[in-house]
Amino acid sequence: MSYHDRENSVDSQVLDAAERLVTSSRDGSFTIDQLVREAQVSRATIYRRLGSKEALLQRLVDERGLEVGNLSEADIPTRILQAARIAFGQNGLTRTTMEEIAAEAGLGVATLYRHFGDREGLIRAFMQEHAPQRAFQQVAQQSSGNIEADLTHLVTEMLTFLHENRDMIWLGLMEGEKTERLLARLREAPKGTRIDMIRFFEAAVASGQLQAEDPQLMTTALAGMLMSFALEVPVLGGPPLEHPRQTAEFIARLFLKGMGIQASSP
Question: Which of 4, 106, 153, 177 has a CA 20 to 30 Å removed from the CA of 198?
Fold first, then answer.
């Protein structure tokens, strides 16, 4: 399947899920969180492929002939977070103002404060919405019992997340101490992807799927591999990330081999 065909397939997958939600809902409405769960794709993928919720609803009208109510009543918090994603990607976390986000969203700045309280509240909500937590929840609830399969699933989600948000990550790295001070104020233990990964490795060690090494060190080692592959580090001259699942399978096999686990053949 070509890249173009795969992208069209993702569009159809999301539109099919949205159509199911519209037709099954009593009032024909749904949230982006519901759509993420129904379509089984990331929030970032929905925004990248289909734009705003309003644009998605318009496509349901134009392409599927559905009646979806008043399209002018967009999901305001989602609209603000989508605008924040664009503004943060252009200017970075520390330099982006509430006024710039409001302008990108086409809203008054007072609306942002009403929904998120202040700038740090908006950034906190943005980070929580965009963190790849869904994959960890799935594995925690429906573990396959196969360390390679579960790890590949998690790595695919994290690799895709890092790659789709690489512009923001690069800006954050370049902002250095300013970003670190901001993020330090926003961290809320015990939440966070790193904590989830440590728990994943702790469970794998406890169940005998991995040898008894330090889960924190395993998490750090895997994070380094993910960053190298996802960010297309120019100094390394690596290839672009075109097939996240295939790359995730390679990373999982390589990681498990390093841990002394015989992974399956490619």
Answer: 177
pTM over 0.90: no
**How many Cα atoms occupy the beta-carbon half-sphere of 71 within 13 Å?**
14
* Structure tokens that stand for 34 in this block: 């519901």
Structure token digits, residue 168: 């923001």
Query: Are 182 and 156 members of one domain?
Result: yes
Q: For residue 242, what are its two tokens?
A: 């075109």
- Does any domain span residue 263? no
- Other Cβ atoms less than 10 A from the Cβ of 187: the count is 10
Domain that holds residue 89: 75-130
Total length of the chain: 266
Cα 87 to the chain's mean position, in Å? 17
Residue 264's SS3 state is coil
63 & 121 share domain: no
Write the pLDDT tens digit of every residue in 83-141. Answer: 888 888 788 777 889 999 988 887 788 889 988 988 888 887 887 776 666 667 666 66
Are 156 and 254 in the same domain?
yes
* Mean pLDDT along residues 166-189: 60
